[in-house]
Amino acid sequence: MKKFLLLLHEDIEKLNSLSPKEMEELVKAHMAWANKLSEANHLISGDGLKDSGVLIQGKDSVVKDGLYMESKELIGGYYLLQAENLDTVVQIAKECPCHLWGGTTEIRPIMEMDDYEQ
Predict the structure, then answer these.
(1) How does pLDDT run across 56-83, given as a tens digit for each residue?
(2) Taking a C-beta distance cutoff of 8 angstroms, is the pair 102, 23 a contact?
(3) How distant, in Å, are the alpha carbons of 27, 52, 55, 58, 71 from that of 89?
(4) With contact defined as beta carbons under 8 Å apart, do 75 and 11 qualify?
(5) In the chain, what are the domains?
(6) How do beta strands 43-48 and 54-57 pair?
């Protein structure tokens, strides 16, 4: 099976406006979806990401704090999935709970050794 990284692009303002009950529903939806993916043998791993960290840039390795993009979106989490092909992962990703709260998913195939040899 091939591996795919599913990145969850979240609207920061929308997430910050969720009530505690809505946030709990979001977490429960992701946990239920992760269990479904695991039972279908598609889930390798997945986690939410904090909205802080560092960015290391350029040949001088300049370290910057905070958010990385001048955007109202951030990558709020990821799922590492396995499937036979991209079409299967696209169908799987359409059910990602982040879409219910206005989020966007991005699918990035993980390169395999054969990809480096071309």
Answers:
(1) 878 888 888 766 555 677 888 999 999 9
(2) no
(3) 21, 28, 29, 34, 27
(4) no
(5) 2-50+73-111 (3.30.70.1060)
(6) unpaired
